[in-house]
Design a protein that fits this description.
With about 450 residues, this protein is α/β, with parallel strands linked by helices. It has 2 domains: about 10-210 and about 400-435, Rossmann fold; about 225-390, Glycogen Phosphorylase B (Rossmann fold), CATH 3.40.50.2000. The protein has 17 helices and 16 strands. Strand 6, helix 5 and strand 7 form a beta-alpha-beta unit. Helix 1 (about 25-50) crosses helix 7 (about 210-225) and helix 3 (about 100-120) packs across helix 4. The longest helix is centred in the first third of the chain and has 25 residues, at about 25-50. Bound molecules: uridine-diphosphate-N-acetylglucosamine and uridine-5'-diphosphate (UDP). The site of uridine-5'-diphosphate has 16 residues, from helix 1, helix 13 and helix 14.
Length: about 450
C-alpha cells in the first residue's frame, strides 16, 4: 500500500519545506486520503535516502498533520478503515460526532479553527463532499492571514463533480468547497467542464485521476484474502473446491432521499424482489439505514443469514473496506446509491445499478458499468434484468491508474513553490527539499 511501484520516476527538483494538513471525517474520505498520506511518506523516505540519513530532517521533509473530525466514529464506519488501509493514527481528533447539518458543520468549524491556528499548515487538503469537507475549507478560507499576508492553500480532491440536484446536501458541499479552493483536483473530464462553466480559473484545475481508485488498486490483492465469502456462505466447497463462489448481488443504500422516506425505501426494496428471488442479495446497511429499517418496520424484507436459504435479501452491518471490496469484486451485480461504489464497480468492471435519479459521476455511465435506474420499482426491476442479461461494454476511465495521489502531491509542491518563489528567492535556501516527479506529462493549468 505504501509503495507506488508503478509511478515512473523522473528527476528531482527543489522546493521549499512545506507543512500539509490532511482532513478526513467520514467513511469515503479514508479511501480517498490514504494514497495521499502514503505518497507523502514515500516522498520523505526518498529525501532521507538521498541525503544518506535514515530520517529526513524536519527542514527537508513534508510535515504531515492528519486531522479526523470524528463525523463518523463507529469502529465499523471509521476505525476499521484505518487498520484495513494501514493509515496512521490521526494527529488530531476533533471528536465531533453526529448532529443536524448545521450543528455538525458548525461544531467542526469551531473545533477546527483552533487546530488551524495552532498548527499553521501551508496547505489544507480536503476530500469529497461531506460536511467535514466544506466545514474545514470554509474555516481555512477565512483564517486571519499570517505576517506575510498569507493563509494556507486549500486543495480539494474530487473537485468539480455535479449532480445538478441542489436537494442533495453533498451538491451544496461540492459547490461551496470548489469555490473556496485554490487547487482543484478532478477525477474525470466532467469535473473540468463544470468548474470552467462556473467561472473557476482553468489554472486552478488539475485533472489527476481518482485517489479512491488508487486505494482500490493497492488493496485488491489483500482483499482476496478476506474471509467474508466463507463467512456469509458464498464459497462453494462442493467437490472439495474452495474457489467456486456462488452467484450473488451486493446492495448498499444510505442517501437520505432514499432511506429517510418510507415510500422510496419500500419502492427500492420492491424493485429488488425479483433479483432476490433468483440469488442472495447481501445488503451492507449504513447506520442511518439500519435505524430507518427499524423505524419503518421493514425487517420482514430481510432473510436471516442462512446458508441453506438459496435467495433473499440478507441484512449485514457496514462492512470493513477489504471485506466490502472482496464482495464487490465477486458480485454478479451491485445495486447502490453510493458515489464511491459507482466508481469502484466501474474500475472492477462489475455491473452496477444506481438507484438514484442522477449521478455526479457521469463517466461511470458513459465509460463504465453503471446504469442510472431511478427509484421506481419498475425501473429498478428493468435495469437489474438488463444488467444481469448482458454486460455493458465498459472501460476504465482516463487516469484511473493508481497514480492520482502522486500527481496530487507533486502538483501541491509545485504550486506551493511557485507561489512562494514570487515573494522569496530560492537561491541558497537551506530549507530546500527534493521532490520526486509524479509523471512525465504536465497537468492542465500548470504554469
Ligand atoms: C455522510 C455524508 C454522505 C456520505 C456518507 C458516507 C454528509 C452531509 N453526508 O452521510 O455524503 O455519503 O456520510 O457514509 O456529510 N451514525 C452512526 N455512526 C457513525 C456515523 C453515523 O451511528 O459512525 C449515524 C448517526 O445516527 C447519524 C447518521 O448515521 O445521525 C448519519 O450520519 P452523518 O454523518 O450525519 O451522515 P451520513 O448519512 O453518514
Ligand atoms: N464501503 C465499505 N463498506 C461498506 C460500504 C462501502 O468499505 O459496507 C466503501 C466503498 O468501497 C467505498 C466507500 O465505502 O470505498 C464509499 O463510501 P460511502 O458509500 O459511505 O459514501 P459515498 O461514496 O456515497 O459518499
Amino acid at each position: 500500500m505504501h509503495h507506488d511501484r508503478d509511478c515512473p520516476e523522473r528527476g528531482f527538483r527543489k522546493v521549499l519545506a512545506v507543512k500539509i494538513m490532511i482532513v478526513v471525517g467520514a467513511r469515503p474520505n479514508f479511501m480517498k486520503a490514504a494514497p495521499v498520506v502514503f505518497k507523502i511518506h514515500d516522498h520523505n523516505a526518498t529525501v532521507a535516502a538521498l541525503s544518506g540519513e535514515p530520517q529526513a530532517t524536519p527542514e527537508e521533509k513534508i510535515q504531515l498533520v492528519l486531522v479526523h473530525t470524528g463525523q463518523h466514529y463507529d469502529e465499523a464506519m471509521s476505525g476499521s478503515f484505518f487498520s484495513d488501509l494501514g493509515l496512521p493514527k490521526p494527529n488530531v481528533h476533533l471528536e465531533v460526532g453526529s448532529g443536524s447539518h448545521a450543528v455538525q458543520t458548525a461544531e467542526i468549524m469551531r473545533r477546527f479553527e483552533g487546530v488551524l491556528i495552532e498548527e499553521k499548515p501551508d496547505v489544507v487538503v480536503v476530500f469529497g463532499d461531506v460536511n467535514s469537507t466544506v466545514a474545514c475549507a470554509l474555516v481555512t478560507s477565512k483564517i486571519s492571514p499570517d505576517s506575510r499576508g498569507k493563509r494556507p492553500l486549500i486543495a480539494h480532491v474530487e473537485a468539480g463533480l455535479r449532480s445538478f440536484d441542489r436537494g442533495m446536501p453533498e451538491e451544496l458541499n461540492r459547490i461551496l468547497t470548489d469555490h473556496l479552493s485554490d487547487l482543484l483536483f478532478v477525477t474525470e473530464e466532467s469535473g473540468k467542464e463544470n468548474l470552467c462553466r462556473e467561472g473557476v480559473m482553468p489554472e486552478k484545475i488539475h485533472f489527476v485521476g481518482n485517489t479512491m481508485i488508487d486505494s482500490l488498486l493497492a488493496s485488491e490483492e489483500k482483499s482476496e484474502k478476506s474471509a467474508i465469502l466463507d463467512q456469509v456462505g458464498l464459497r462453494s466447497r462442493s467437490n472439495g473446491s474452495t474457489n467456486g463462489v456462488r452467484r450473488y448481488a451486493l446492495l448498499t443504500l444510505h442517501r437520505p432521499s432514499n432511506v429517510d422516506n418510507r415510500d422510496t425505501f419500500l419502492s427500492i426494496l420492491e424493485g429488488l424482489q425479483e433479483l432476490s428471488g433468483s440469488c442472495p442479495v447481501f445488503f451492507s446497511a449504513h447506520p442511518r439505514t439500519q435505524k430507518r429499517i427499524a423505524e419503518f418496520g421493514l425487517e420482514h424484507f430481510f432473510q436471516p443469514g442462512n446458508e441453506s436459504e438459496p435467495a433473499g435479501i440478507r441484512l449485514l452491518g457496514p462492512l470493513g473496506y477489504l471485506d466490502f471490496l472482496c464482495l464487490m469484486k465477486h458480485a454478479a451485480l451491485v445495486v447502490t446509491d453510493s458515489g464511491g461504489v459507482q466508481e469502484e464497480t466501474t474500475c472492477l468492471m462489475v455491473p452496477c445499478v444506481t438507484v438514484r435519479e442522477n449521478t455526479e459521476r457521469p463517466v461511470t455511465v458513459t465509460c463504465g458499468t453503471n446504469v442510472i435506474a431511478g427509484t421506481s420499482s419498475e425501473n429498478i426491476r428493468k435495469a437489474v434484468k438488463d444488467q444481469m442479461n448482458g454486460r455493458k461494454q465498459a472501460r476504465v476511465p482516463e487516469k484511473w491508474d493508481g497514480k492520482a495521489a502522486a500527481r496530487i502531491v507533486e502538483t501541491i509542491l509545485r504550486e506551493f513553490e511557485r507561489r512562494n518563489s514570487t515573494s522569496r528567492s530560492l537561491e541558497g535556501t537551506s530549507a530546500a527539499t527534493m521532490v520526486r516527479g509524479a509523471e512525465g506529462t504536465g497537468h492542465p493549468g500548470l504554469p
